[in-house]
Amino acid sequence: MTDEPQTLQIAGLAVPVITANTVVVGTGSAGFCAADRLWEFGQDDVVMVADKIGAGASRNAGSDKQTYYKLTLSGGDGDSVREMAETLYAGGAMDGDNALAEAALSARTFLHLCDLGVPFPQNRYGEFIGYKTDHDPRRRATSVGPYTSRSMVEQLEKKVARNGTAVHDNCRVVDLITRPGADGPEIAGLLVLRTDIPHDGEQSPFLLLRCTNLVYATGGPAGIYATRVFPHGQWGASGAAYRAGVHGKNLTEWQFGLASIKPRWNVSGTYMQVLPRFVSTDADGGDEREFLTESIPDYGRMLSLVFLKGYQWPFDIRKALDGSSLIDLLVYRETVLRGRRVFLDFRSNPVRPELDAGQLSPESHEYLERAGVLFGTPIQRLRRMNEPAYQFYLDKNPYVDLEQEMLEVDVCAQHNNGGLLVDSWWHSNVAGFFPVGEAGGAHGVYRPGGAALNSGQVGATRAAQFIAARRGASPVTEEEFAAAAEPVLAGALDLVGRATSRAAAGEPDNTGELLRDVGELMSAKAGPVRSAQSIHEALVQVQAWLAGYDDLVTADGGSRRAVNRTFLVRDILTTAYVYLSAMADYVAHGGRSRGSVLYTDPEGSLPRVGYGPDAESELDLPEIFRFSLDRGALDGEIQEAAWQPPSDSPDADADRAGRATFTWRPRRPIPQDDDFFENVWREFREHGNIY
Length: 691
Hints:
single chain, six-stranded antiparallel β-sheet, alpha+beta, 21 helices, about 20% strand, eight-stranded mixed β-sheet
């Protein structure tokens, strides 16, 4: 391998081409882990590319106490690989082999991070102490504080640098390059746009990578939602994978939760447990009012539900009928349905000047009493319980002083549990393509808090193992690569050429407008509250945008940002089209409310709050909040998605956006392999055939 590109003439253009066995796309914790593991397993013919090295969720996201989930490594409590796998599998719609692999490798990948210098807490005897997180029957969770994933990225990045692996920044994914294989398409390379090179200059802004394998660590498709807690610069690149024939899995399953929007950050844990005021205003900041009391008049009940949001942070439809997730719905009503703004006010107590702790539920009262904070205002309680949580907002840009001002919040998209199809080695249906981290659809409906960080490390390790053992072949020849890359590059040149020519003719650049519009449409119609009608409305609009995109998008050819967004918006529209189609198919399949999503059902129930007989009284809420629980009806099934390119038929106007097709299959059970040592040892020793 040489990191120095060679120049090939492809589609009439002199294009630099880098050749390597494996290209890792993305520089988050999963991407760096994959690159490091490949090097450790003996495959050092690796390069990395990234849209922006300093961006991404791993490096910039977190929470009050960001959790990492792993096998129990302390104390006398029992635990086992099988038991952890069953916990993951119990989340519903998760394949059992993925669950078993995530459990089996959890200790290995966790200790790898510890050895690299991630400061997970341990006692004087070397036990890594844990605590319970959501959907966790043990004490498997651990944390290094608000920036657990950032610490992981930093240490993994240092290791990759020591290995000598080359990393190329400012590379926007345009398209995957595939060629026909024995069992379907297989990877031949990748086309990226160099966003640091002007489009109208002498140097080609396009870069080609010729490779045998792609490890796709591009993160979740954050760009499809406007109301999101994903950090700025986290967009995802799933659309390119769908266009290349990679299938999707569990695409309907997102996680939503309360988060501040400037800056973007989960307001979980202590932020809720100190009982701030929930205030809404009009668009200009006037007409301030505490809105929770409108639906939860019982003072003690309201405070107790706010407290519970601290460790029941994700919106969970099972807790929306009469539990803490009612808070999320009331915030959604203010922001989405009423067009108002919502703030957390830590400067004064909810409803009354003084906190009446005697009205709290026993659980809430005991916790706050043990913390020594049954006094004062929310900000005083916050600084007593968790001073770093207060200091955090002072250190952000824009900064917020919670002692002086309110914090604006909304119900935000936070994590995609589904994603690109993976098997037990995180290999997709396209040979040589390995989606890892949030890009890969390894999770089901529910997952324990922190399981995503474990999954990213496990998936990256499994993919690296498989590549090093089975996919060490050299990339296709230059001639074969040029033949496969030519139509892909020609299509990209045509798209950007048409977009920039319209701008040169005087049409205004609309890339920013389209980027905003698709996100706002998705948040309004396909966010935590959806209906068959709202999904259909969004799908019709996205299909129209995508079908006419070549003639719609207009980009200033002198703006690197506009040319970049030409491809970014296409990727987001492709992704949104597939995801909306998956949501429509889920409803048609009989799917009801589950996970972090409410699907409106006219025959269902509205949330209620109260004790005893009063609990049966439905709240006066919009009919869009009427729902029926899934109750695990589809936990044993998995929805897979595929995108088919537009038909060449001139009569196929409705098909110009391509078509999304779906299949439902039983989830794979947790494997029951022979675990008798002598048999496994003999098989491993004689054949090494674990792949």
